[in-house]
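Minutes, project check-in
Item: structure for the 184-residue chain
Input as provided by the requester:
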Amino acid sequence: MKTAAAAVVATVTRALPIPAPAPAPVGRAFPSVVGRSLAGEPVRLPQAVAGAPAVLLVAYRRGTQADVDLWIGMLRRDLPSLRALELPAIANVVWRPLAGWIDGGMRRGVPQPMWASVVTLYEDAGAVRDFLGDAGGLTSHVVLLDGAGTVLWFHTGGYGEEAAAALRAAVAGASDPPSGRPAR
């Protein structure tokens, strides 16, 4: 049964048109969207991560998880105090009636202590896709937000040491106080 369902998901996902790239999101406010964590709680973004920099790892396809896992490993190792959320963004309305089944499958693959950091977007997934774009492929879209929800840094194209170093530098820059003003 699982294999048949996975085949259907893969077939429908591949059949979806890939939207044209969106304008570069850096310097723009992340759209206000609502998802549900695997813990069952509604999560409104970017408000849920307001007040400090945070990373959103957006994935449009199941096969993207390997890339997300590489980013999560780097974040845990190098930036453990930075808030990070995984955002599976499932824009196709075909899947909305199956949201509970899909989220249940994800819960089986994610340790329970991590459930609050995985927020699935169904109804608002299209808004995120329109904002970030989707070049296709199996790579995540990595978004660094400032405490007000503005995109400070953005990457798509897969995890790599150069991209990881750029994210670390962007986080360090976001954490520095503005020149001439002391840190609080």
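Outcome recorded: The helical segments are 2-15, 65-78, 99-109, 125-132, 161-175.
No further action items on this chain.
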